[in-house]
Amino acid sequence: MPATSGQVAFDFIKTANGSCDVLECNPRATSAFHLFHNLPQQLAAALLGDIPPGETLRPSTGLSAMKPASAGRLMR
């Protein structure tokens, strides 16, 4: 995959043989920001461009990641 920067989101589908294919790329912030509800400082840094080059912000996983969030709560 080519290098990317900024706000970008990829949608994947897992195929029958176990590989993942890209369905689409969204070059903007998406509704998935709720996955970062427990990382508010890191999310704010990423949105402001304060994440070091090459560092990846990893979202929460599991059922706790489905907790709804609001932009106001994330940016406190």
TrEMBL record:
It comes from the Bacteria. Residues 57-76 are annotated as: Disordered. This is ATP-grasp domain-containing protein. It comes from Chromobacterium sphagni.
